[in-house]
Amino acid sequence: MIPTVTKARIITLTSVGGGDLLPGLSMLLNELPRKSKVLVVEYPCMGIPRISYNTFDNKEAFERLHKQQSIDQLLLDFNRKELKPLHDYMVEYKGVDYLLINPRSMPDSPVTMKIKSNKTMMHLPVYLRQQLQEKYDFIIYVASGTMLHTMTFSSIKYADAAVFFNNTSVDFINTYTGYKRFSEVFGAAEERLFLFSGEGKFERKEKNFFKKASDLIKEISKLPPLEIPMQAAVLLVEEDIEESGEIPGIIDPMEYLEYSFTDSLQDDLITEDDQKNLQKLKQQVQRMLSESHLDHYVAAVNSSESEQKVMYLIADIIRDLTTYSFKMPREQVISWVQQEILKLGPVQPLVDDESVSSFEINGPEEVIVCRNGLNEHDTSIKFASVEDYIQIINKILEPIGKSFTGNTPIIDANRNGIRVNVIADTTTRDGVSARYPLVAVRKFPKDIFSDEEVVSYGNMNWEMIKVLRALTYAGVNITVAGSTDSGKTTTLSRLPLYMPKITRIMSIEDTEELRYAFKQAYRDYPNLPSLLTKEMDDPSKSIGMDKLIKAALRQRPDILVLGEVRDKLAGSQALIGMNTGHTTWSSVHAESMQETAVRWLQLNDSTEAAAAQVGRAIHIILFQERLDNGKCVVTEFGELLGFTKDSTPIINPYFVYDYEKRIHQRVGNITSDTILRKFKRKGIKIEEINTVLQGVTA
């Protein structure tokens, strides 16, 4: 009779030589007491998915296996400290729970290569023991690696019983050698080590040699649970491992003889019960925010101050609630809920990183980051699953009242200084993206770059700055042009610096990017209203840029700022505004100064009359590019004097960029009658421009 135990027996089945363990596993499972609750864990020591291919003889059951339900995904999430409930990684088959190697993983690229530290792989067998030993009667670790493989070594060392299995006499030498070395060299107690042979005729004199699985199970069941030593500090921490030159997944076992686990191993990771309660608590807090603090909750999307307010509200709500109990500290609970509600999971570090200007997500493991102006595939940023990826998308959209559905396959949104474009996929949302949902995130500087920063960066030189200051102060119409992500918005956002603080500067955009009123540099500017276009299901009720320009002209603006002029309706209305005396700053997509003038002409039907109007309305063009070193630079800066009879722009450049020398060069002077007249009106003498600029600055 096998005695009843309150905790699972942890049995590691190994050959430490790469032999076939499946016959041994089958024999053990067949001899376990009926109605035993059993978990089988297949560690990816060598990355070969054997159990799923040999045990799941039912095609339908096999096809249910996927990456998210695997030991591979659990190991990645354990390493990131982003674990889901452990049962989410398991599959059940014929009454047994399995944690299996992803059957579609490749042995030449095992998951262990993606883990930075052996510490993670040493700890996982112990963590699973701690979390699951009260939920099962037997937990069988299957470790097919050698003693050099981290998880093979750890699962043997920290099991109640280690069963060294050989199915043939050929396997016996390696198996027996491993059995003896664990006792004589690695200090494992002999009573916890067992030899088990699948060949009935094979005989050994060792006390712990078994041919029958039933006898082996009875002997193992007599053992008391293994006590795993804990202490305040880990003797070999992650940094030590990395400096020692070890390869993750491979160790020198001699260096781990005295390895101890910290008392905080459980504290560092969230228990399964706590995870369930955290999810319930998060949902309750979200409901309470929506019911009682909706204004702040919605405003937190676009306001750092409101976000901080909601952080405090979440903390207060949780401290007052007594519905749920947690093993983790209360402050850790508060921090977790704050992050879940207000932050963006795996991509939050990219949002916080000031060196990152944009990033695109093509799928759970494909995140392309523009860092310091250069694109890179950031393999450290991954989502646990497609579901987690979609959850982050919904987190972005929910507070602003938008939903991620196939009914609206393309969604634009703003969230606290970032612009987000989401394209739904054909698989989960009946959208238009073939594989996964697509997300593009553009970040905008939290504040305005000073003149000194612009010159130091290389965007412009001091002479260009002085000319631009005079032109802006004089009230000329300025267009900033360039390709996507060339820095147009950043340059446009700096122009109010050169105007009196009381100037009424009204911005009009499709999505809020300029955000003048939120910039620290403009905290003393009280007159910076902004308008946003609004799309409706009924196009006739939509409010586009053309309608907003018409409305804005009735608001007595000193300056109109058009964030991005894209269509003819907006282009023609903007031209009307400029030709009626309203100073206008704008941005358009174009490939050069010349093409910028042509683009404005195209937006107004390219007629002879339009050429005359554009020639009078557009005074200054700044053309920007992102260079091969990642820097955004004004490469052309000058005036538009008009068009020839065949509609060719007449351009007078003041400055051009020398790509070889990487410097700006002065190539022309201000000649436009319109600009000179505006200078005269402001009392600016062209020959004394540098002297006068000192007065403008003051």
Automatic annotation (TrEMBL):
Every Bacterial type II secretion system protein E domain range: 553-567
Species assigned in the record: Paenibacillus bovis
One Gene Ontology MF term: ATP hydrolysis activity
Record key words, sorted: Plasmid
Stated name of the protein: Type II secretion system protein E
Similarity comment: Belongs to the GSP E family.
PROSITE patterns per record: T2SP_E
Gene coding for it: cpaF
Domain of life per record: Bacteria
